[in-house]
Write a structure and sequence with these properties.
The structure is a single chain. By secondary structure, the protein is of the alpha/beta class. The protein has one domain: Class I glutamine amidotransferase (GATase) domain (Rossmann fold, 3-Layer(aba) Sandwich). It contains seven helices and 13 strands. The strands form three sheets. It has a nine-stranded mixed β-sheet with strand order 4-1-5-6-13-12-11-8-9, sandwiched between helices. It has a two-stranded antiparallel sheet with strand order 2-3. A two-stranded antiparallel ribbon has the order 7-10. Helix 2 packs across helix 3 and helix 3 packs across helix 4. It is globular, with a radius of gyration of 16 Å. Bound molecules: manganese (II) ion.
C-alpha cells in the first residue's frame, strides 16, 4: 500500500491553487498526494488526519502575525485567513497523533507558529542578509546552507553543507518548543527546523519540489518523508 499524503494548497478567490511539482514529487517518492480543500471544521480535520499517513505543508503567502502575538509590519505580505485556519488545525492534529509532517517554505513557518514559535515578518527589515528572494529560475540552487550535526536533514543530505533555492522574505525567529534549528544559511537565517523527539517533523525554508528532478538532496528529502509515512 502506498502512503496517502494530505497536501495543502493556496487559497485564491476562485478556488484552490497548487503547483504540480508538489504532488509530482510525492508521487515520484512513492506516495499518493491528496489535496485538502478549504472550509473544513475541526472534526473534519481530525478525520482527514485519521485517513492520511502524513502531511505536506506547501509554500504560499505570509502567516497572520497575530498567531505569534505581533501586529502587522509594513513589509508583511499577503495573508490568507482561510488557509491559516486550516493549516494550523492540520498541524495540531497531525502533531497530536505523531504522524509525519514535511513543511516547505510557508509550510515551515506555519509548522513553527502552530507549535508556538515566531517569525521574522521580513528578513530585510530585520537585517541586511543574503538574497533569499532569488531572481534566478526556481530550479537554480542559489545559496548554501549548513546542516546541524546529528540532525535528520544532515543524515538525509549525506553532507553538512549543500545548496538550496530560495524564495522567501520571512524566516523562523524563535523555534517552537520541541523543534530545533537544523540548518542555517551563512547570514544566520534559519533554513530548516525539525522535531527534537525523533519523529519525522521536518520544515525546510527552501523549495525542494522545484529541484527534486535534478538535485539529490531534494529528491532524498521527499523519499525520506514518504518512507516515514509508510511506517
Ligand atoms: Mn533562503
Amino acid at each position: 500500500m502506498k502512503p496517502i499524503i494530505a497536501v495543502t494548497a493556496n487559497y485564491e478567490e476562485e478556488g484552490l491553487q497548487l503547483k504540480h511539482a508538489y504532488c509530482d514529487s510525492i508521487r515520484k517518492a512513492g506516495g499518493i498526494p491528496l489535496v485538502v480543500p478549504f472550509g473544513l471544521d475541526e472534526a473534519d480535520v481530525a478525520e482527514v488526519c485519521g485517513a492520511a499517513d502524513g502531511l505536506l505543508l506547501t509554500g504560499g503567502p505570509d502567516v497572520d502575525p497575530a498567531y505569534y502575538g505581533e501586529e502587522p509590519q509594513p513589509e508583511l505580505g499577503k495573508v490568507t485567513p482561510e488557509r491559516d485556519r486550516l493549516e494550523l488545525m492540520l498541524v495540531g492534529e497531525f502533531a497530536k497523533r505523531g504522524k509525519p509532517i514535511f513543511a516547505i517554505c510557508r509550510g515551515e513557518q506555519v509548522l513553527n507558529v502552530a507549535l508556538g514559535g515566531t517569525l521574522h515578518q521580513d528578513i530585510q527589515a530585520w537585517r541586511r542578509s543574503l538574497q533569499h528572494s532569488q531572481k534566478a529560475p526556481r530550479s537554480h540552487l542559489s545559496h548554501r546552507v549548513r546542516a546541524a550535526e546529528g540532525s535528520r536533514v544532515r543524515a538525509i543530505a549525506g553532507t553538512d553543507t549543500f545548496k538550496v533555492n530560495s524564495f522567501h522574505h520571512q524566516a523562523v525567529k524563535d523555534p517552537a518548543p520541541g523543534l530545533r534549528v537544523t540548518a542555517v544559511s551563512e547570514d544566520g537565517v534559519i533554513e530548516a527546523i525539525e522535531s527534537a523527539d525523533g519523529r519525522f517533523v521536518v520544515g525546510v525554508q527552501w523549495h525542494p519540489e522545484d529541484t527534486a528532478a535534478t538535485d539529490d538532496v531534494s529528491r532524498k528529502l521527499f523519499e525520506a518523508f514518504v518512507d516515514a509515512c509508510r511506517r
